[in-house]
Amino acid sequence: MGDDPLASKRALKAVPSFAEFIDSQYLPHVKAYKRSWQTDVSLLRNHLLPRFGKTYLDQITRQDIVKMHADRKDSGAAAGSANRLLIMMRYIFNLAIRWDVAGITTNPTKNVPLMPEHNKRERYLRHDEARSLYESVCRSPNPMLKQIVAMLILTGCRKREVLDAKWEDFDFERRLWRIPTTKLGKPRHVPLSDGALSILQNTPRLDKCPWVFANRKTKKPFVSIFSAWDTARRKAGLADVRIHDLRHSFASLLINSGRSLYEVQKLLGHTQIKTTQRYAHLAPETLLEATNAATRAVGSVMGVMPSNVVDVPLVIAQG
What we know:
mainly alpha; hpI Integrase, Chain A; 3-stranded antiparallel β-sheet; 14 helices
């Protein structure tokens, strides 16, 4: 009948199982460029491999994906947690298609929508809160905490970027900090403000230590600063402030100072403007000033608006 049954069998045998594809292709790929690849390993080990590990890639259906997504939410997890699994599966199948993996021609996650997330947390430091926090970290037993926190606020960089910074990465003449490997696996350049330069100039260099904010005992980057940070933020009365909120606050301060989203995007190292928009918090004072600008513009055209009913002249209708 024109078919080759042996060829069909060989094609079927060439289709890898989900676990085989992850082990032989996906993980080597993400480990080569993704700094947070260990998060992928955790999601795979705890959720995806137990469910799909023995299943051949071409046997995973849209219905399987929908059920996985719903089951994760029904287990009590947040919508964001369920969405992370869907996003990872979408990426896995996109790679399989791009790499011409046998038997994979369509992505079963296509048209499976993300669940709405209503837990987007917004926390920005006010000027007085930033001052209180800095005063608290200055009293910390960890002598490097004040430099680390100040650098986070003044550059908007990620915690790991600051902790792993080396002296050789800073060009003081050009006022640039080259971060060799970012979250996306690519280098980027961060301009250094007067405040950031001052922090660096007042940070003592440890003998034969390439790292700027190293642990003075080990002369290596801190693995974690959470204990010192947690103590300092609580003493400042800011127990709800996370380290990542310092990055939020940096962006918020720029936006409220009149800087454009494009400028903030470049400073934060975002590839997409929609990511930056999450940080673009406008303080009530800034919004009030914007509305007053509209009032002033209208007033210039319409004249002075009456502030009291008695100021309005009486008009007698004719008729």
